[in-house]
Amino acid sequence: MTKDEAVSRLTDTIAKFVAYTGKALPDDVKRKLQELGKQEDTPLAKILYETMFKNQELAVQLNRPSCQDTGALQFFLKCGASFPYIGELDKILRDAVVQATVNAPLRHNCVETFDEYNTGKNVGTGVPSIFWDIVPESDRLDIHTYMAGGGCTLPGKAMVLMPGEGYEGVTRFVMDVMTSYGLNACPPLLVGVGIATSVETAAVLSKKALMRPLGSHNPNERAASMEKLLEDGINKIGLGPQGLTGKNSVLGVHIENTARHPSVIGVAVNVGCWSHRRGHIVFDKELNYTIDSHTGVKI
């Protein structure tokens, strides 16, 4: 396989995977929605979950995106330093988004700021967003794809807490965001919390937290305990499906963290809506791929 053939194959595979993830939710999200739906006992909540499941069924059956807002595309990469096409990846991902926009199709969601025009291709200045982690002594490419819709992006917030606010301040910040804006983001929500020093590091961590499989926990025992406490607390708000009340407000709460400056805590929140359209695909250097987010997918 020549380099041009390899680039074309990688572009086509990613484009088809992005298109597919707009139509079918990942396995863990579908399982969690089924679990939460069974716990609701009001007629309205039950109808809303049944509508979500019918929506998913029809999206696959009719080969259409499961939500009209197919988001602004984001890619979270763990790219081996020896992956043979590392230098071409930026162009490959942009071309894949353009291809998926036509073939899926995806709604045109890329507006150039200040110039205020829609590019019509879902690519523009800095879009798709590409977050890189380079992995030494590896020749694999690990990609999380994510459709960041307008509603689920709305609650995103970050700040640096005043010295002394501590983890109580983190809890207050998360609960303030959820009680103020959670309703607008199509619950039940996946809540990502980033804890670091400054706002930019916390914000990236909070979004990476949304890429973790549902049911996973922070490896730190205290952080995992905080995930559970926040989940219980946000559920008690009673947002329910689509914010129309119910027993559960969230699919889960995920915390990602780094070490921090001793005097401050940076904290950020990002959320995913009930239609949490992410995917995970891993390529080896021969471009053989595995997908672990969606069982049985053929692209």
Polypeptide structure, described:
This protein has 8 helices and 11 strands. It has helices at 3-21, 27-39, 43-62, 89-103, 150-153, 166-181, 199-208, 221-235, and strands spanning 72-80, 111-112, 117-118, 129-135, 141-148, 157-161, 189-196, 250-257, 265-272, 278-283, 289-291. With 299 residues, the protein is α+β, with helices and mostly antiparallel strands. The strands form 3 sheets. Strands 4-1-5-10-11 form a 5-stranded mixed beta sheet. The protein has a 4-stranded mixed beta sheet with strand order 6-9-7-8.
Shape: globular
Low-confidence stretches: none
Counting DSSP H or I runs of 4 or more residues, the number of helices is 8
Helix content: 25-40%
Strand content: 15-25%
Rg (C-alpha, Å): 19 Å
Helices and strands, in order, run as: HHHEHEEEEHEHEHHEEEE
Structural class: alpha+beta
Number of E-type strands = 11
Largest sheet: 5 strands, mixed
**Cα end-to-end separation:** 20 Å
State mean pLDDT (0 to 100 scale): 97
Q: In what order do the strands lie side by side in the largest sheet?
A: 4-1-5-10-11
SSE topology:
Layout: H1 3-21, H2 27-39, H3 43-62, E1 72-80, H4 89-103, E2 111-112, E3 117-118, E4 129-135, E5 141-148, H5 150-153, E6 157-161, H6 166-181, E7 189-196, H7 199-208, H8 221-235, E8 250-257, E9 265-272, E10 278-283, E11 289-291
